[in-house]
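Homework help board

Subject: predicted structure for assignment chain

Our instructor gave us this sequence and asked us to write out the predicted structure in token form, then describe one feature. I got the tokens but I'm not sure how to describe them. Can anyone check?
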Amino acid sequence: MAGFFRWSLIALVAGVAGFATPASAMSAPSTRLVSCVSGDCLQVSGHRADRNAPVTFNGRPIAVEGERRWQFSLPVSTLRLWCEPNVRAVSIGVDGAETRTRLPIGMMVRPHELTMLVIRTK
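My token output:
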């Protein structure tokens, strides 16, 4: 019985320590390509300690859905206007703390017409 109480106390202390995790230890925002009403969109999601903390995308304020776990979708056409060509990462700010977040592979590459595509097997 004493072992049970000891393990319960350890679990309780570990749980309380988890609540004391600093904001900098939270995971970085993530990005993915999704389908939306206006065509293809970049969906960005993340976490914030304060549900009222402002979120920015490349320095622009963004309205997000959710409270502590938030997300927003940005049409690819808007993304191309707000970013440099061939960019691989964007800046996501949460409560003033900026983080560089990688875009999905090939997201901002401009399409080219292919004259020929050669695929060889090994």
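Reply (TA_rk): Your tokens look well-formed. For the description, you could write something like this. Residues 4-25 have pLDDT under 50 and may be disordered. That's the kind of observation they're looking for.
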